[in-house]
Amino acid sequence: MGIVALIVTLAMWGAVATAQQEARIPRIGILIGSSASRYSARVEAFRRRLRELGYVEGKNIFIEYRYAEGKLERLPDLAAELVGLKVDVIVTTGQAVLVAKKASPTLPIVFGAAADPVGAGLVSSLGRPGGNITGLSLMAQDLDGKRLELLKEAFPKVARVAFLWVPVDSRGNLALTEMEAAAKALGLKLLSLPVRSLDDFESAFARAKTNGAHALITSASPLIDTQQRQVLDFAAKNRLPAMYHTSEYAEAGGLMSYGPNYADLWRHTADFVDKILKGTKPADLPVEQPTKFEFLVNLKTAKQIGLTIPQKVTEKADKVIR
Length: 322
Hints:
CATH class of the largest domain: Alpha Beta
Radius of gyration: 23 Å
Helix content: 40-55%
Number of strands: 12
Structural class: alpha/beta
Oligomer: single chain
Number of helices: 13
Shape: elongated
Largest sheet: 7 strands, mixed
CATH superfamily of the largest domain: Response regulator
């Protein structure tokens, strides 16, 4: 009887252990260099898509949120926290992708938007990412050219455009190289305004004024996004025609914006996460490129700073703010 009881007990323990393993709830880590408020629409799009896929936060999925609030030096510690929590996958963007990669070379990572994932060394190729990282690219044919083209069409007299950007590419200043090529094709002179930290913005704006910039254009970067208000105020105060990389700027008072629909990109990251949680390796999930783009014009801002945007330009807009 003692042996039988022991066998029954061991069997029960085994069943309990198996049940505990089966009951383990997957955990997602979100790592952002910017603020929670800045990324609220994108993260909500991600969460909404998870719900559509059958995930209920707190019941069959946990999400750990980590925001650096623009202090990018905090990212390594925040990434280490997520790794220490044994999350099943990290969803991230911008410079934080490389930080997450350094924190763990094996933990699955999905990027919500990467300017050049191949050039930055995140993936081997778009079709065959390899390694532990995949996601959505911001790369689209002639995106920089389209932004400058719309800016030039709206303000034909513009000749010198200040370009606010963050040097992050491992294979060189790709963002600057591509924007310079687009500017040259349109007969525009580009004034480079690189920023690497929060302390660089004031000096960058001073250079724009000193060098007589006629307009401003921004690149996609969490660092720049954390200073959205400062950037918008600079353009407004100096009455500069400005083209921004995301509709969130135009919605917040910026003059014009053209770029991918970031909420849509983040919505699709949930599909990547779903496949990874079901056993697919990031290496086997091709990087996707944006399919939805939007052009916004803020006529209210144009009026406030004394600028006129031609009707032929506003007719092209997906949304006009009046």
